[in-house]
Amino acid sequence: MKKTIKIILVILSIFLGIVLVVFYRMEWIPTYETIFNEIEVTKTLDLKKVGEVANFDVDIPKKKGYTFSLDYLRNLEEHMKEREELEKNLKPGERMDNDMTLFYKALGRNNSYEITKEGAKIVLKLTITPLFELKDDYIYWNFEEFPASRYTKKSNKPFEITIDLSQTLSHSGRHSDIHDRKKYFGREKEMFHLLLPKGKYNIKVENLKDVPNIEKIITVLIIYIQKRKA
Fold first, then answer.
1. Which of 34, 92, 200, 229 could form a disulfide with 131 if both were Cys (CB 3.0 to 4.6 A apart)?
2. Is the peptide bond before 212 cis (omega within 30 degrees of 0)?
3. For 168-172, which contacts have Cβ atoms below 8 Å and span 24 or more sequence positions?
4. In the chain, which ranges are continuous DSSP H helix?
5. pTM of the prediction?
6. What is the pLDDT of residues 30-85, one digit of tens each?
7. Secondary structure (DSSP) of 121-180
8. CA 213, CA 101: separation in Å to the nearest integer?
């Protein structure tokens, strides 16, 4: 009898743990939509060499959480031709693996909890400077961790963050709506989310490492409103 009760308690504990994890994910890890009619920021970045790759001003229309992501894109026709060539050269018994393609070698893979295959070593430093007197502290979520951790930085200096895209644990795997799916094969990698009050900001992006093996991959910085679904 005691053994049966123990087994039931263990099962209940496991079930409760799963429920709590699901609740935590739903409550604290946001779900996102892309709303480009409210703000549209797309900047193609040349990451083959070290240096400043973007410097621009942007008007933030309302106080919201904004997603900063990097889109990885490749010409769809070229991507499909590469896959066909790889399939032709497979040895008997071998199966086609997406990781063989240039695209996935650049993107890498993860299962949210850990990196299963490192992508291209893209290391970006972003500096966001308010062009007005900002009184609120910066609140942001860093996706080099899982679950995404919430941090605060004082607003007496520009907001700076360095992201290693080969180590980020959040790439949604979805294609950004701003790129033509008939022309490009692509996936989005979320870097971080930042709460920004309304106002004008300067955004500078620096590439901290040469990435010569990404020449056939187009990389695009996108910024959009983070919106939690009901």
1. 200
2. no
3. 168/110, 168/143, 168/144, 169/110, 169/112, 169/113, 169/114, 169/115, 169/143, 169/144, 169/145, 170/112, 170/143, 170/146, 171/107, 171/108, 171/110, 172/32
4. 2-28, 76-88, 102-107
5. 0.75
6. 333 333 435 568 899 988 889 999 999 999 988 888 989 998 999 989 988 988 88
7. --EEEEEEEESS---SPEEEEETTSSSPEEEEE-TTS-EEEEEETTT-S----PPPTTS-
8. 12
Asked if residue 113 lies in contact with residue 106, where contact means CB atoms within 8 angstroms, the answer is no
Burial of 189 (0-12, 13-18, 19+ CB in 10 A): buried
Could you tell me the sign of the dihedral formed by the alpha carbons of 100, 106, 111, 113, in that order?
positive
pLDDT tens string 103-132:
888 888 776 667 777 888 999 999 999 999
d(CA 44, CA 59): 19
